[in-house]
Design brief:
five-stranded mixed sheet; 62% helix; 389 residues; Alpha-Beta Plaits; 3 domains
């Protein structure tokens, strides 16, 4: 199983003296909050020109560990011969956060600039096309006026010459307009294809968890709304599974974020293999928690599928670098969608079942309706109660 975290006994005296606790908030709580903020910021990073999302995630996790336990800062190794934890470089952590935030701002500004340039290029091309059409129309109009004058004079030779000139000009104008239109359509299609590809990539990235490749929390929330609407329309069963990896925080604290990331990826792979139907929807709900929506599945079948997933997870053995391998277990809460139930209410019942699975010893499945029949929903802890990890 996972190892227990050996926390430092205390911060250095100078650190404690320099950071007195605010009213009602201890120095340790403040450090925990700062580390959580850094980790959360890293977990929600996106690819920039100078750094990928995973690289940024690892860097800010390292900063969080530096703030918490004095681990080496990103890019610097541990001091030779071991020794006490390094002095916390809060100023450098602040600058790293500030610099990366500015890089994100510049990236977004540049990307928006590209969209503006494409829009202005399209408008400019349209304006030039209209101007060219006006010039061509003026040329055709001049030839037609000459032909009309020749007809009024009754000069056969002049009529023939003006008619030939008019036909030549009109044919040239039509050819130029056709060629210009074809070129503009091709250029516009190329720009639209490029914009469409960028938008599709952005939409896919916005809906996908960068670490696991599963859907992310935002995409899951939207999908849950659709599932509730579809269930109301077609009157079909739907089950929600909320899964939480047992003792995951211990892995991150003792073996580092890189090991924790590998655990998350391997668990995601197992879930993808266990829930393979086209309509099965798997998402990383947040941190070490996953959510699975199953269509046309009642609670009894959902429990069986959840038990199968737990069995597959128990067979995992994960090793990274020189760390000894570890096994993985998880706890699952199952809730079938009730008539008239909203998405938040559905999630809350599944989360309560997950809480009971954690409280009941972990590595197990709890079904919302079965637990409610035994103990009553009112007797269960509220959704705001912290779930044991």
């Amino acid at each position: 199983m996972f190892f227990r975290r050996d926390k430092p006994s205390s911060d250095p005296p100078a650190e404690r003296a320099a950071a007195p606790a605010a009213a009602g908030v201890s120095a340790d709580d403040a450090l925990d909050l700062a580390a959580d903020l850094l980790r959360t910021y890293g977990e929600n990073a996106f690819d920039l020109d100078e750094a990928g999302a995973l690289e940024t995630r690892g860097a800010f996790d390292q900063w969080a560990r530096h703030i918490l336990v004095g681990a080496p800062i990103p890019g610097e190794g541990a001091p030779e011969g071991g020794g006490p934890p390094a002095k916390r470089e809060t100023g450098r952590a602040r600058r790293a956060f500030r610099d990366h935030r500015r890089a994100e701002r510049d990236f977004v500004t540049t990307t928006l600039g590209h969209y503006r340039q494409a829009t202005w290029a399209f408008l400019g091309g349209l304006r030039r096309s209209l101007a060219s059409d006006r010039i061509s129309d003026d040329q055709v109009s001049a030839r037609m006026q000459g032909l009309e004058a020749a007809v009024r004079d009754g000069d056969a030779a002049r009529i023939k010459a003006e008619a030939q000139d008019a036909v030549t000009v009109i044919a040239r104008v039509l050819t130029e307009r056709e060629e210009r239109s074809a070129t503009q359509v091709a250029e516009l299609a190329s720009r639209l294809d490029a914009l469409r590809a960028e938008l599709e990539a952005a939409r896919s990235e916005a809906a996908t968890d960068a670490l696991t490749g599963l859907f992310n929390r935002g995409a899951f929330d939207e999908q849950l709304e659709r599932e509730v609407d579809l269930s109301l329309l077609f009157r079909t069963d739907r089950a929600l599974l909320m899964l939480d990896i047992d003792h995951f925080k211990r892995v991150n604290d003792e073996r580092g974020h890189r090991f924790g990331d590998e655990v998350l990826r391997r668990v995601a792979d197992v879930l993808a293999r266990c829930f393979m139907r086209k309509d099965d929807y798997i998402a990383r709900y947040g941190g070490e928690e996953f959510a699975i929506v199953l269509r046309e599945v009642n609670e009894h079948t959902a429990r069986q599928l959840a038990e199968r997933a737990l069995h597959a997870l128990r067979e995992l053995e994960i090793a990274v670098d020189d760390w000894p391998p570890i096994g993985v277990t998880a706890s699952i809460g199952v809730a079938q969608l009730r008539d008239g139930e909203s998405p938040p209410e559905w999630v809350e019942r599944a989360d309560r079942a997950l809480y009971r699975a954690k409280n009941g010893g972990r590595d197990r499945v709890e079904v919302a309706s079965e637990s409610a029949a035994l103990a009553g929903e009112a007797a269960q802890p509220s959704a705001a109660s912290p779930t044991p990890r």
